[in-house]
């Protein structure tokens, strides 16, 4: 399988080899195939191969270049060795992603796999693909415009487990009556709205929310500034915990707390998401209370299986995954797979990200973290 990269100045930071064969097929499950829309879709074959375009949204979050892209490429190669993959990362630029998508459509891609920078703005790209008979898989975020299939995680549940973990930490510290700060994700990302809703479902009525922010572009710098404002408004000693929607923003939150004079051992519990290496390191160092581990390899594998099913016109069959439906912004049903998530604290780092070979103990226990209890016990 050949791979072409659009916007060649953006390069992947890591690539991981497959450790097991895919249990994903494109055949035999009746009633799950959808077409590419207004245009006439010309189906292809696995034997001859076809052209798949993968569009990822940003570089602020480490997962996309380090995991999503290489895992998807590996899975597509396993399912369709003769397929060609074109890849681009928009670096959080809506216009850039639209340009990248148009370039791929002009270049003749047969299927688009789209993780939208802005799900509403992506409707134009989806509609253009449909007009050319090119089916679209919405990856991680449900783009508007009438996509054919969608794979992500149960994002409402992500917010719930973050909220539950924060409440448990507050109860353990005896700070249930304290105020918390909520640092939510980007307002242009529909997943962020689901995380936020799930967190509120758990936190509302159980704890006082002293300050709350939505954070443009999931920016750690913006999160840092927001947290500084919350510290000024509430007083650092009045903040019992912080809901941070992801690990990158948690880094900005913790930096603001440390700059306000809070010692590591006195940091309030701070949540996170994505199980980034830096986030895991903060967890083992006692700086960040938890993160949410979303197994990206299965997500990428399912997306590749969806792309092959749509490209070949075959029905979609997935071994071991529940296929369901979700409603898009227009109320239309979209075939979907929603994956489970796992809470990671210091207690189960070994059983999750290390056991799954996302990171080794040596990668976690760099010099800055070698003195932590986790590293002392496991190196």
UniProtKB/TrEMBL annotation:
Residues 53-314 form the Periplasmic binding protein domain. InterPro entries: Bact_Solute-Bind_Prot2, Peripla_BP_I, SBP_2_dom. SUPFAM superfamilies: Periplasmic binding protein-like I (SSF53822). Keywords: Signal. The keyword RNA-binding does not apply. Pfam families: Peripla_BP_4 (PF13407). The keyword Signal applies. It comes from the Bacteria. It is found in: Cell envelope. Its main location: other. Residues 1-32 form the signal peptide. This is Substrate-binding domain-containing protein. It comes from Nocardiopsis tropica.
